[in-house]
Structures are given as C-alpha cells and as structure tokens.
Amino acid sequence: MCSAVQYLYEEYSTPVIHCDLKPSNVLLDEDMVAHVSDFGVSKMLEKEESFAWTKTLATVGYIAPEYGSEGLISAKCDVYSYGIMLMEVFSRRKPNDEMFAGNLNLKSWINDSLPNSILRVIDAKLLKREDENFTEKLEGFSSIMELALKCVRESPTDRLSMKVVLETLKKIKLKFMQVRQADE
C-alpha cells in the first residue's frame, strides 16, 4: 500500500493526494496484497505544486493537523494518515478508541511506550514473550512504531517522504525475513 501511495505522488504523471487514507479504504486481495481504494476526496496537484488548499473532507483521527485546521494538503498529509494506520494495525487500537481521552491519544500512547515499554502497545496476537527470536521481533515492531511516529510529526516539513517510508519498511521487512528464516 505504501508503494501505491508513493507512486501516486512521486511517479504518476500528475501528483495525486489521496486525502482520506484509513483502514476501510485499503482492500486486500486473495493474496493479501493491499490496494488503496475510495479516491472520492483525492486531489491532483499540478506538477510544480507541492501543496494546495481544499475543504476538509477526511476522517477524524487519520487527518493531518494542517489539513484539518487549514485545509492545506500535500503528500505529507497522506504520510501522516499512513503513520496513524501503521500504529492502528500493529497496536490494534483505533485513533478514536475510548481509551484515548484528555491528553492521551494514539500518538502519545505509542510515543510514551518507546523504547522500553513497546510490548504493552503491540497487539498481543502479534508477539508473545515465549516466541522464538522474541528480542529480534520486538526490535522490528519497535522500528515500525518509530517509523510511524516519524510519519505523524506535527509539522509536515518534519515528516518523512513516502519514498523514505517505503525504503525503511523494506529494510524492516528484510530483517523480519532473516529472523523468520532463522526460525525455520
């Protein structure tokens, strides 16, 4: 899915900002390959544009701060939404979960868990202390959550590009595959 979003912004003839990335807009095919869907509120930028203004139509919880408050969209809005989705997938907590109230939100909950308490936020079905290569797997999940936090930085200029996100995910996947091969 990350590669599709990166393609739309950096490689497609006209840059496309999805503007509403969230789990319900990601479909899995029979091979469990993710596909981005619902381009109803997406925006196309001119080649020389890196941002634009629009009405806010995205989903609360996944929306970048600058899009929600100012209607400012850029590729970094999709990066933000992608970071929230990463947190949700690996923690099994939605950004609007009832546990998040007051100053506690998904971002702060994940951030406060790093680096020493990451196990308390990772979905228990994904990792157990008795798993083989527990430490290596825990490091992988920590890397994913650190990446997600870099995606959801408040300022769009401080967020990673989707290209860097994709490269980082590929490196994390490679490490996971090496651990998996060691298990076999």
Could you walk me through the main structural features you see in this protein, from its secondary elements to its overall organization?
The protein is mostly helical and 184 residues long. It has a single domain (2-183), classed as Transferase(Phosphotransferase), domain 1 (Orthogonal Bundle). 43% of the residues lie in helices and 9% in strands. It has six helices and six strands. Strands 1-4 form a two-stranded antiparallel ribbon. A hairpin with a 5-residue loop joins strand 2 and strand 3 (34-36). Helix 3 (75-91) packs antiparallel against helix 5 (134-151). The chain is globular, with a radius of gyration of 17 Å.
The computed structural class is mainly alpha
CATH architecture: Orthogonal Bundle
Main sheet: strand order: 1-4
In terms of DSSP E residues, the strand content is 5-15%
Shape: globular
Unreliable stretches covering 5 or more consecutive residues: none
Radius of gyration: 17 Å
Oligomer: single chain
What is the H/E string?
A: HEEEEEHEHHHH
